[in-house]
Amino acid sequence: MALHVNVSFSVIIGRYIELIKPNLFVSQFKDKAEFCKWCEEGTKEDLQCTLKAFEDAEAYEWCSIINEVLKGKEYESKNKETKGKPLLFRGNAPNGSR
């Protein structure tokens, strides 16, 4: 037997928006370490969007965690680009030595 619920689309969207508000969203994690692990699953683009939402909500305590994970991903990305290249091609050469 199918359950028929008469809920409008706008009500569903409204409830979803409430659920994903940063201050309510973080309450779903048992601690900051679990939130950090969740952040690590995202891409740099995901984290940038998440950071913007948390900044808008003035959830700065959580912004610092997002920022740290984002910096780590940027560092990893930069290291992948330079891995295996000679130092002179990594931008580390003194002026005029290229």
What does this entry look like structurally?
The protein is mostly helical and 98 residues long. The protein has a domain at 30-83. It is built from five helices and no strands. It has helices spanning 9-19, 22-25, 32-40, 44-56, 60-82. The termini are far apart. The mean pLDDT is 84.
Topology record:
Blueprint: H1 9-19, H2 22-25, H3 32-40, H4 44-56, H5 60-82
Helix pairs in contact: 3-5, 4-5
The rounded distance between the terminal residues' Cα atoms is: 75 Å
What is the number of beta strands? Answer: 0
Radius of gyration, taken over Cα atoms and rounded to an integer in Å? 21 Å
Overall pLDDT: 84
Q: Can you summarize the main beta sheet?
A: none
Low-confidence stretches: none
Instruction: Please trace the helix and strand order, writing H or E for each element.
Output: HHHHH
- Principal-axis shape: elongated
* Amount of helix: 55-70%
What portion of the residues fall into strands of 2 or more residues?
under 5%
Q: Structural class of the secondary elements?
A: mainly alpha
User: Tally the helices: what do you get?
Assistant: 5
